[in-house]
Amino acid sequence: MTVQPAMPKCWRVETKPHKFCPGCGHGLVLKALGQAIDELGIQDKVVFGCDIGCSLLSWDFFNMDTVQTHHGRTNPVITGMKRANSDIIGVAYMGDGGGYAIGAQHLVSSATRNERITAILVNNTQYGMTGGQMAPTTMPGQKTETSPYGRDAETTGSPTQGPEMVAAIAPEGAYVARGSVANMKQLKGYIKKALEN
Questions:
Q1: Within a 10 A sphere around the Cβ of 153, how many other Cβ atoms?
Q2: Domains of the chain
Q3: CA pair distance 125, 154, nearest whole angstrom
Q4: What CA–CA distance (Å, rounded) separates 180 from 3?
């Protein structure tokens, strides 16, 4: 049995412990991403882009080329880099706001064109960095700062089902998955497959 190191080799040790809130899943998603990068041996090829919101706290996570983008613009920035240099492996990392709200048009366009990038969206079901407001992915009945009685689908619509939306519009051969930090082995496998796709 192979034992995983406590931290992926592609992480910057000097920037740990990370800045995410206790209990937040971002650190675990980034660990799974780091492990996948280490296992594939692609650290020198990856360009990591992070969005505004909680995901911006990942800007100094990795010892590899990193760019922080404007809110919701991570997919087009990484797409442009990939088109300019097809040898890179582009990773666009964002939260539910950056992917399913202000950046939804860019996610949809990237999926429709089957851009050769990996988009990772972390769904907190709320806007955690700015006080816990309702997000496109807030569940019916879920209480947030802007829905103190719970999300009412009749007045605010149903939550965005991100992976299903992307799968419905993406061309054949595109890889779409939904993972959870509750199953790190599966999550790492999904991310690894996305990086290889």
A1: 12
A2: 13-124+161-196 (3.40.50.970)
A3: 18
A4: 21
Q: Across residues 118-129, what is the average pLDDT?
A: 94
Spell out the residues 6+ positions from residue 54 whose beta carbon is closer than 8 angstroms to its own: 20, 24, 26, 95, 122, 124, 128, 129
Which pLDDT score, from 0 to 100, does residue 93 have?
A: 98
Q: Report how far residue 197's alpha carbon sits from residue 159's, in angstroms, rounded to the nearest whole number.
A: 28
Contacts 24+ apart (CB under 8 A), 174-179: 174/111, 174/114, 179/32
| 96 half-sphere exposure, CB direction, 13 A CA radius | 21
Compute the distance between CA of residue 97 and CA of residue 52 in angstroms, rounded to an integer: 9
pLDDT at 138 over 80: yes
User: Which residues, in sequence order, are CB contacts of 35 under 8 Å at separation 6+?
Assistant: 4, 8, 188
pTM of the model: 0.94
- Burial of residue 91, with CB atoms counted within 10 A of its CB: 0-12 exposed, 13-18 middle, 19 or more buried: buried
